[in-house]
Specification:
Blueprint: E1 2-7, E2 10-15, H1 48-55, H2 75-86, H3 100-141, H4 143-151, H5 156-196, H6 208-226, H7 229-237
Antiparallel strand pairs: 1-2
Helix pairs in contact: 3-6, 5-6
Length: about 240
């Protein structure tokens, strides 16, 4: 693919041989922009000799990226590096955590983590309360039938099991829909992030432990509501 560019005041026709992604330019913002716009701003890499000849700058560079050895603190490298490049017009080095791309990606990660911690604890008690209110209302409306069942020898456990059979399919259906919809939305979200940040790929992984915990919490919440002492006492005392 050909690309026309103005370099050092001259138009040059460049040939794009590949697409690359660098950690410091994942979230690339142009001057005065609030959101990335690949149609108006982009980052390009060229062979050093070709770029130096086009710009008439031999032995110069405008950007330096260093990879630290595992366990090396960034502060121990930044200070001597700033002293070394200050005489050549260096504006100061920064760690990866302080770069704009990393900051935006980390903010997205924290936002998703906050949603995971906040939304389920809100919706789960509300759903459990609705199930409890529905079942309590059914028991109150069917108090005569409960009395007849107790009169012919049915115990509270058998009667309570009837109402348990009413709400368990609702919980099971919600768990199944949650698994299917959650997996589909997770794949869609991963694809959206991959397109927005131009990742070559972004894998959405399904963790069986997370699915098991997600299924256990609603089941325990429903069962906990069904075993409330006031309902059990009602079943045992109403005739």
């Amino acid at each position: 693919m050909a690309l026309a560019a103005v370099m050092n005041g001259k138009r040059r026709d460049l040939v794009v041989t590949g697409i690359a992604l660098s950690p410091e330019f994942i979230y690339a913002l142009g001057p005065g922009e609030m959101m990335p716009d690949p149609r108006r701003f982009g980052i390009g890499w060229m062979p050093r000799a070709t770029l130096a000849a086009a710009c008439d700058l031999h032995g110069a560079f405008s950007n330096l990226v260093l990879r630290l050895a595992p366990g090396t603190p960034a502060d121990r490298v930044i200070e001597p590096l700033d002293r070394l490049t200050a005489r050549y017009g260096g504006t100061g080095a920064s760690a990866r955590a302080d770069q704009m791309s990393h900051a935006f990606l980390d903010a997205e990660r924290l936002r998703l983590g906050a949603m995971v911690k906040v939304l389920p604890p809100i919706f789960l008690p509300v759903a459990a309360m609705l199930v409890h209110l529905t079942r309590s209302r059914l028991i109150v409306l069917e108090r005569e039938q409960i009395g007849l069942l107790k009169a012919i020898g049915y115990g509270p456990g058998r009667i309570d099991g009837r109402y348990l059979e009413f709400v368990l399919p609702i919980a099971a259906g919600g768990i199944a829909v949650g698994f299917l919809a959650g997996g589909g939305l997770g794949v869609g979200l991963a694809q959206m992030y991959a397109r927005f940040f131009s990742f070559p790929y972004l894998v959405f992984a399904r963790d069986p432990q997370v699915h098991a915990l997600a299924a256990l919490r609603p089941a325990l919440a429903v069962r906990g509501r069904l075993d409330r002492p006031d309902l059990i006492a009602f079943l045992e005392t109403r005739e």
